[in-house]
Design brief:
Blueprint lengths: L1 H6 L1 H26 L3 H24 L2 H23 L7 H11 L2 H18 L6 H37 L9 H18 L3 E8 L2 H8 L1 H17 L6 E6 L2 E7 L3 H18 L1 E2 L2 E2 L2 E7 L6 H17 L5 E3 L6 H7 L7
Parallel strand pairs: 6-7
Antiparallel strand pairs: 1-3, 1-6, 2-3, 4-5
Helix pairs in contact: 2-3, 2-4, 3-4, 4-5, 4-6, 5-6, 5-7, 6-7, 9-10, 11-13
Length: 342
């Protein structure tokens, strides 16, 4: 539970605001029943039930977009109803709603909810003692909404920057290992659901340490950047490239297996052989390839590709090794007699 709250910002906001609202409203609901104000008590109870349902839905389904929108609607509508039923004391409940809408819904919807709530209270007019108080309330509500919008907007931008930094490799601009873990989980789930084949490629630049030692890390960085550019130009938009660490990369290929996978790998190998250069000469890479098997875990899938890469490097480098050929007869047949197949 704590992990979900740490990793899902919108869910954490919905949970925090929902729990705070429940804790804040419940005492007033109980008090109003004791005071005999059944209408106000029923309004509070309805709001509490709505918030509880939204919280449960958000946690069970993970659909925080709809949950946030519904929670914002319940909060604003509830505050308006409380204001019309209770009168002046109920006006104060609208202020936290004016702030939280910008964290629960997109800005346009939040602005609409805030304006509609204030206008509804002003049109009803029963919660205000005078016209001056009504317009003072409208002015302060506008100021609160404007400040909340600015803060929420800045918070959103900063969060996007942080998420970008946390998932993108700063040198090459491609996704990092954290993103890879998420995408591999999604790929495995999609494969189980649809039967779509997925291939995982681990590739490692041959003798990369020697390049760094003899020509400097600047040249090594240029090699990494150039290789990423070549791979992106020679793969499909649906393929995904990740930096696994150092000079190791992972390529996720959906919808390819057998002879098609063999052709893709041979093409990538030839492209790198032809175009990858550095001051000391050409640059090559070793490849370990594994097809996702039915019911296989991501860890096992990655381990088989890693074992194939290790074999490629141990048997001479600049090679393509396919994992567990005995489990994929058509792939074995396609690679039989090829110097890059094992």
């Amino acid at each position: 539970m704590l992990h979900r709250l740490k990793t899902d910002f919108r869910l954490s906001i919905i949970t925090l605001l929902g729990v705070s609202a429940i804790l804040g409203i419940t005492p007033f609901a109980v008090m109003r029943y004791f005071q005999g104000n059944l209408l106000a008590g029923l309004v509070d109870t309805t709001i509490l039930l709505g918030i509880t349902v939204v919280l449960v839905y958000a946690w069970v389904t993970g659909d925080t977009r709809r949950s946030g929108l519904v929670l914002a609607f319940i909060a604003c509508t509830g505050a308006v109803v409380v204001g019309t039923v209770v009168g002046e004391p109920g006006l104060f409940w609208l202020y936290p709603c004016l702030v939280t809408t910008f964290f629960l819904a997109n800005p346009r919807i939040a602005v609409f909810l805030n304006v509609a709530s204030v206008v509804a209270l002003m049109v009803h007019g029963g919660a205000f003692r005078s016209e001056i108080q009504m317009w003072s309330f409208a002015s302060t509500a506008f100021v609160v909404s404007a400040c909340a919008y600015v803060f929420a907007h800045r918070n959103h931008d900063q969060r996007e920057r942080l998420e970008h930094l946390a998932t993108i490799d700063p040198l090459t601009g491609i996704k990092n290992r954290r993103s890879m873990d998420q995408e591999l989980d999604l790929a495995a789930a999609n494969a189980e659901r649809t039967g779509l084949p997925y291939a995982l490629v681990l590739l490692d630049i041959d003798h990369f340490k020697k390049i760094n030692d003899e020509h400097g890390h600047g040249v090594g960085d240029d090699v990494l950047i150039e290789m990423v550019e070549l791979l992106l130009k020679n793969t499909r938009k649906s393929d995904q490239l990740f930096r696994f660490g150092g000079e190791e990369f992972v390529l996720l290929l959906p919808g390819v297996d057998g002879i098609g996978l063999k052709a893709v790998m041979n093409n990538l190998q030839q492209v790198l052989r032809k175009y990858m250069k550095h001051p000391g000469g050409s640059v090559t890479a070793s490849f370990g390839v594994a097809l996702l098997e039915h019911g296989e875990s991501v860890d096992s899938w990655l381990a088989r590709a890693d074992a194939a890469l290790y074999e490629a490097k141990e048997t001479g480098r600049d090679r393509i090794v396919f994992a567990d050929h005995q489990r994929a007869p058509e792939l074995a047949a396609a690679t039989a007699g090829s110097p890059s197949g094992v």
